[in-house]
Structures are given as structure tokens and as C-alpha cells.
Amino acid sequence: MALIYKMWKLCKLGLLSLVRLFIPRHCVVCGACLCEEEEVLCLRCNMGMPRTNYHLWKDNPVERAFWGKFPLGRATSYFFYQKGNEYCHILHQLKYEGRKDIGVAMGRMVAADLLRTGFFEGVDVLLPVPLHPSKKRRRGYNQSECIASGISVLTEIPVDSVSVVRIKNTESQTRKSAFQRWDNVKDIFALRDSSAFQNRHVLIIDDVLTTGATITALADALENVEGLRVSVLTLAMATS
Ligand SMILES: [Zn+2]
Fold it and tell me: Which residues keep their CB under 5 angstroms from ion ligand 1?
């Protein structure tokens, strides 16, 4: 049985290499052809990625963004997102071009880096920021769920994408003022099953942190859960 499994794995690898020979994969940032070991990003773009390394700082700017909003365990964003920067392609392709594989691969990359620093210690469950069901249907997936599933592969922390729902389909936040953003997301989430988070340490996962309004609205929806601890991890952090 083990031999058959090994042979199947070898055949699968061979087939994959053959497919990649005819359909080359490209770096999502610079467009260069990726080699076998590279995933989503080429080595050069991976090395040059504007990582925040905020997970190594106490009271880092992401944590400070939530001060006074809700009780926070720890928080970080993985890389800086600046409009017009070539690394924007990661988020654009993930959200608007159907590339959910980018979310999973980036989630794995984030987890591999943060695991060694103990960032995930004590975390019981990953909570991707829910999309409104109609938006999820339109897009075909929730990009934050993709990131969470990549993180889960390495950390083995389960993902909960059912216990909280988005009950309001808000307009895009991008063209709104800071005040409008906070108003726009008030009461947009509803907790379906509070027992899922009782006495748990929940890590909220999102793609981009801008004002923190959406994540705060999600934390607010959980505020009456007994013994809850909330931490935050986003793939990117918007800078002006
Ligand atoms: Zn590249």
C-alpha cells in the first residue's frame, strides 16, 4: 500500500512538472518565471518584500491602532502595502483576479516566519473576517479565509468560518473618510454561536489593515463572549 502511495506521489510530481513546463507560473510581483521551488513570488521579490517585522515589537503600530477600541492580546501585519507599489499586485490578484492560491501561499509564508517567534502560542482558533454571503458568492471565495487556511496548514490551528456572519453588505471602504469608514461598518457582524469562542484565544485574520474599523466591528460582535481573548493578524498594512 505504501509503495503504491509513493508511486502515485512520484507520478503526481512528474505530471506537475510537465504541466509547469508548458504552462509556466509567474511571480505575482515582477512577472518573472517561477522555478519549481518558488511559490507566488520569485526569490528576488520574496527577499525584497517590505516586511514590517512588527511581530517582534511590543506596542507596535498595529497594536496601537486598536488601543482603546477593544482588549487586545497581540497584533501584527506582515508587510507594508502602499498604493502604486509593485507588491500591491499580491492583494489585487488575490481579491479581484480569482487567485485564491495566493492567499493560501501567503498564509503559509506568514506562518513559517511567525511560528518561530511564538506569535501563535496559545491561539485556539483562526477567525477570518467574514464577507457578506452575496459578496462571497460573487467572488467565489473569501480571501481572508484563504490566508487563514494557509496559516492553519503550518500551525494546525483550526479555522472557524461559520460562527460569525456578516449581516450587512457595506459599500467599499476605499473612497470613504476615516469617520465614514467607522460609521459604515457599525453592527455589520453577528455572532451565531458564542459557545464556539468561550474561553478561547481567537486570532482575527484579514487581508489589509487600513483604519482597523472592520476588525474592531468584528471584535465588538464578540465582546460578550465569556473568557475571550482576541489577537489580530493581517497580511498587509496600508501606509499613505
Ligand atoms: Zn518577482
Answer: 27, 29-30, 32, 42, 45
